[in-house]
């Protein structure tokens, strides 16, 4: 069995510095009449995430979620949240950093974002909205596969 020299290996660091709401909006354009309707909404969810470097080894990861609930053709509510976190991520390779920013950090943020949405919808007078968990690992893999397909199709043209 080979021994590994860990004395000179850099120590990987991952720290959550802050989780915060950047922007929050809620609209109930058909209130109060929408409250008289039978509550069987169709819920649409739009989700985006991105990351940016703030300084060396410090990144902001940003989730943007829009939830729209309709009853037939009437909008019951639209809730939009931009939620972010600041993370220290040090001594990871570029190949390790990409999934950290594209999957691991969004997985940390999402439960907080979900709570903000549930709270604002409830404060708007509607039954609590509990969003299903999101598999950011699978979304990240789909994104990477799509990016590879696009790159390979560009090379063939």
What would you say this structure looks like, in words?
This protein is an alpha+beta fold. The chain has a single domain, classed as SecB-like (Bacterial Protein-export protein SecB, Roll), CATH 3.10.420.10. Helices cover 32% and strands 38% of the residues. It has a four-stranded antiparallel β-sheet with strand order 1-4-3-2. The longest helix has 30 residues. The protein is globular and about 65 Å long. The model has no long low-confidence stretch (mean pLDDT 91).
Low-confidence segments, given as residue ranges, are none
* Percent helix range: 25-40%
SS strand fraction:
35-45%
What is the radius of gyration? Answer: 20 Å
CATH class: Alpha Beta
Per the CATH scheme, the topology name is Bacterial Protein-export protein SecB
Q: Using the alpha-carbon principal axes, give the shape.
A: globular
CATH architecture: Roll
The largest pleated sheet is described as: 4 strands, antiparallel
Going by helix content, strand content and strand pairing, the class is alpha+beta
Total tally of structural domains: 1
Number of helices: 2
> What is the H/E order?
EEEEHH
- Described by its quaternary structure, the protein is single chain
Overall mean pLDDT:
91
Major beta sheet, strand line-up = 1-4-3-2
Brief rundown of the structure:
The chain has 157 residues and is of the alpha+beta class.
What's the arrangement of secondary structure elements?
Layout: E1 13-27, E2 42-55, E3 58-71, E4 74-90, H1 94-123, H2 136-156
Antiparallel strand pairs: 1-4, 2-3, 3-4
Helix pairs in contact: 1-2
